[in-house]
Design brief:
Helix content is 41%, strand content 31%. By secondary structure, the chain is α+β, with helices and mostly antiparallel strands. The strands form 3 sheets. A two-stranded antiparallel ribbon has the order 1-2. Strands 3-4 form a two-stranded antiparallel sheet. The longest helix is centred in the N-terminal third of the chain and has 20 residues, at 2-21.
């Protein structure tokens, strides 16, 4: 049973890597670094174009709590933002935005879902 769970964990990491990087360009190859069948939560991506690699690097380094807060700041009742980070200091490309008003959360979702931010298309949904 453990080996099945470990394989699932690496498969999930692979899908997550694809979902983060496909938007920057054509991926020629990628590799999740693993140890004993478990993802170490980092890997390598090789893009067809150098520009794609630069855009991905910029995205991973530029998104922080301040940038996320500035993006959502125009909506009232914003209470906090939180970007998720890997242990080695790179953004996971996901974050959470908290509103005290469901109405404002809905406005932000409707206005920002599918827009572009730091070279990536935003996927905004309720958590």
């Amino acid at each position: 049973m453990d080996s099945a769970a470990e394989s699932l964990q690496v498969a999930c990491a692979t899908r997550r890597m694809q979902s983060i990087f496909y938007k920057f360009g054509i991926i020629l190859s990628y590799k999740i670094i693993e140890e004993n069948g478990r993802s170490k939560e980092f890997g390598f991506v090789k893009f067809e174009l150098e520009e794609s690699a630069h855009a991905a690097i910029k995205f991973l380094h530029d998104i922080d709590d301040k940038a996320l807060q500035e993006l959502f700041n125009s909506y009232e009742h914003l209470t906090s933002t939180k970007v998720m980070w890997y242990a080695y200091g790179v953004s996971k490309g996901i974050g959470f935005v908290f509103f005290s008003s469901p109405k404002e959360a809905k406005k932000a979702l409707e206005a920002l879902h599918g827009t572009h931010f730091h070279g990536a298309t935003l996927y905004v949904t309720y958590a």
